[in-house]
């Protein structure tokens, strides 16, 4: 039995309208399945919403009210749209496409227009249209101890790890209902006792570059025993948000970890003893260079060859990175038939435009795109490619489930070089 406050009971009884009632019914059922005894207030949410491809089960002309009621509220009854919780700061997560470009991403105008219609209705609910898998770049920054929901796997890791906020990798329906009610079951990373580290990672080497941080996250996830919470005790150099983004994103590819303590960096891990909660670890694992090399072999195909599709920005990159790329590619020209897609969010692209970085990039024939990435857009956006180059590990690994062509992975400027050369060179 889930204990509810008077406020929560009023929502469940329908005193705040059918919209909130249906969402609260979902949250209560969710809590019962999880065995949670109570709910907790969530003050931030990101939603994987719009004309996302998981809605392909509905005919294209289906009324969005029906889709929303059945899919997100799990209701057989068609429910009128209402407002999301005024106490929960809510915005959209990564999108199924760029909000404006459709020809350059090989998707149909009809699909883009349908996505726009869905988002406009979502906006009326009080959800901000941001379409970012790196929401912390544009103001979505939960504080230590703040409870949140997110459908972005890399965001849940970085929010727990760096900000000390509390949240789980919830599904799209749970996140939507949490945003409407401002409530989520108190379980998992919302509970202090579940956040303590249980597996200690010691590195035989130092990681310094962004690619090394990226590769390390992928490697840790491979080595992490199931249902354990990792802590890294050494070896990390030049810690900053962009490197942390890559580590957290790739860790979420190869594991179900929702937090990765880093001694001296994570708010709850200023010491190893603090990270472990005073207990002895269940596992102690030493990570070697060989482990990293094995990960690289899983991400980058062997050999050299011509390429025609390069994507940078999974997760979405920062303004600083766009600046560095713009200076690097200034004056260059992409070979005919080669695409270079660089992905960020709308706010960051606007800043890149104001500063002139976007023009430097686009003058070369490359595209500075927003809101999505090839993995999320799926096969229609890249099925024409004959060989791909991807940065980072999350993108390089995930795209393999959507293509049979060669996929190469490497340091970000090496990937960019491949685009302007039209060729990937092994070992360079």
Using DSSP, what is the number of strands? 16
Spatial strand arrangement across the major sheet: 13-12-11-14-15
Low-confidence stretches: none
Strand content: 5-15%
Main beta-sheet annotation: 5 strands, parallel
CATH superfamily of the largest domain: Aconitase, domain 3
Class inferred from helices and paired strands: alpha/beta
Q: How many structural domains in the coordinates?
A: 3
- Number of DSSP helices? 16
The CATH architecture of the largest domain can be given as 2-Layer Sandwich
The CATH topology assignment of the largest domain is Aconitase, domain 3
Q: What is this entry, summarized?
A:
With 428 residues, the protein is of the alpha/beta class.
Fold and architecture overview:
The protein contains 16 helices and 16 strands. The model has no long low-confidence stretch (mean pLDDT 97). The chain starts with 5 loop residues before the first helix and ends with a strand. The protein is globular. α7 (210-223) runs parallel beside α8. The chain has helices at residues 6-12, 18-34, 64-72, 109-124, 153-161, 172-181, 210-223, 241-254, 272-276, 289-299, 319-329, 346-354, 357-362, 374-377, 393-398, 412-421, and strands at 39-41, 44-47, 89-92, 148-150, 183-185, 199-203, 230-232, 261-262, 283-287, 305-306, 309-312, 339-344, 367-370, 388-391, 407-409, 423-424. With 428 residues, the chain is an alpha/beta fold. The protein has three domains: 6-192, Aconitase, domain 3, CATH 3.30.499.10; 196-297, no CATH class; 300-424, Aconitase, domain 3.
């Amino acid at each position: 039995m889930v204990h509810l406050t008077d406020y929560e009971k009023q929502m469940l009884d329908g005193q705040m309208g059918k919209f909130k009632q249906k969402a609260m019914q979902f949250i209560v059922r969710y809590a019962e399945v999880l065995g949670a005894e109570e709910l907790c207030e969530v003050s931030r949410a990101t939603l994987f919403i719009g004309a996302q491809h998981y809605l392909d089960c509905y005919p294209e002309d289906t009324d969005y009210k029906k889709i929303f009621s059945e899919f997100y509220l799990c209701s057989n009854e068609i429910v009128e749209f209402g407002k999301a919780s005024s106490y929960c700061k809510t915005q959209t997560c990564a999108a199924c496409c760029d909000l404006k470009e459709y020809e350059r991403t090989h998707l149909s105008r009809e699909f883009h227009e349908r996505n726009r219609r869905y988002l406009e209705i979502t906006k009326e609910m009080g959800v901000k249209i941001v379409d970012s898998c790196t929401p912390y770049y544009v103001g979505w920054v939960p504080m230590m101890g703040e409870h949140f929901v997110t459908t972005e796997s890399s965001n849940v890791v970085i929010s727990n790890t760096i900000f000390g906020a509390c949240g789980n990798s919830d599904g799209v329906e749970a996140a939507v209902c949490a945003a409407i009610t401002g409530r989520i079951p108190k379980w998992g990373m919302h509970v202090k006792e579940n956040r303590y580290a249980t597996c200690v990672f010691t590195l035989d080497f130092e990681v310094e570059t962004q690619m090394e941080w990226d590769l390390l996250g992928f490697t840790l996830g491979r080595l992490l025993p199931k249902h354990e919470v990792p802590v890294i005790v050494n070896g990390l150099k030049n810690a900053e948000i962009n490197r942390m983004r890559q580590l957290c994103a790739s860790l979420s590819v190869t594991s179900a970890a929702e937090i990765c303590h880093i001694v001296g960096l994570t708010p709850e891990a200023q010491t190893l003893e603090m990270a472990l909660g005073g207990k002895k670890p269940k596992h102690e694992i030493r990570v070697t260079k060989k482990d990293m090399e094995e990960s690289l072999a899983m991400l980058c195909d062997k050999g050299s060859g011509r390429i025609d599709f390069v994507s940078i920005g999974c997760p979405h990159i920062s303004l600083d990175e766009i600046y560095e790329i713009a200076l690097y590619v200034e004056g260059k020209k992409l070979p005919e038939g080669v695409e270079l897609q660089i992905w960020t969010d709308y706010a960051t692209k606007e800043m890149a435009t104001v500063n002139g970085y976007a023009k430097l990039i686009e003058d070369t024939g490359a595209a500075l795109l927003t809101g999505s990435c090839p993995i999320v857009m799926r096969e229609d956006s890249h099925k024409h490619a004959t060989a791909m180059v991807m940065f980072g590990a999350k993108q390089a690994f995930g795209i393999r489930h959507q293509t049979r062509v060669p996929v190469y992975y490497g340091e970000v400027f090496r990937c960019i070089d491949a685009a302007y050369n039209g060729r990937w060179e092994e070992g360079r």
